[in-house]
Amino acid sequence: MPDKNRLIIDVGTNSILALNAKISDGEISVISDVKVTTRLGEGLQKSGLLSKEAMKRTIKAIAEIFAKKNFDSATVIGTEAVRKATNKSDFLELIKKECGLEPVVISGESEARLSYYGAFYNLHIDKSDILLVDMGGGSTELIFGSGDNITDSLSVPIGAMILKDATSTDSLKEYSSFAEIVFAKELERFSQNSPGTLVATGGTITSAGAIYKKMTEFKGSEIHGMKLTAKILTEIGEKFENLGPGKRKSLIPFDPHRADLMLPGLGIFLTLLGIFKKDEIVISNGGLRYGAALRPELVVSC
User: Fold this and answer.
1) What pLDDT does residue 230 have?
2) Does the N-terminal or the C-terminal CB of the chain have fewer CB atoms within 10 Å?
3) Class of domain 124-285 (CATH, top level)
């Protein structure tokens, strides 16, 4: 039987990530892997609702991906923004009406597990003692593991977009200070012993890698497995801060819509490097969509 094309759409708080791939014997052959910034969670922190404009943008992006018809099966996965929204049923019904299939809203625990398996696909590092940081717009998943075994996980309800909305000063120091308070409280039940390796996935860290490599067009394969130090992340953050909001898009030509979220996102990563006493972090271009493609049995509604 020939391999079938599997489409996985990860509907995040800030972006849609759509992986179209053939899966055979645990191997992924990527046909396309695209990102569209739709800001689904814009204003969610204050209103508790997905706005009509944000839903419209997101549905349009999903519909355009579906219109290509270059897949045999498809799964649409909702994460933090959809979980939190009091009007999520309206959004899910719109997807069903537009695309003809039932979206799956997964729990934070399932999101962490899928992100873990997907992040380490084709990532050649020592996996004996690791912490995966999967930071999105609405939440940050912390997954502790060894090899294929997850030893503990935590979903912290703060991401780049939520942090930006929660603070009044647009500065790396302010974002880091606020994030430190949130994570220190959430991590009270964990041992503060530093893991062997920190690995990160999500739009902020992959964008930071692309910015460091001076990319004008994003190429995920070129930053997968790349290491960034706290010093480099701080320097990138300072460049965004020094330019001011109006000119930051020039620093991120491959995804200018993300420009205003880079500072809060970098603030979170610098905070976590400090908490776990690490100086560098490994970038993964994988994540939830890859995990869902490899382990579809784990994509279960919460």
Assistant:
1) 98
2) N
3) alpha beta
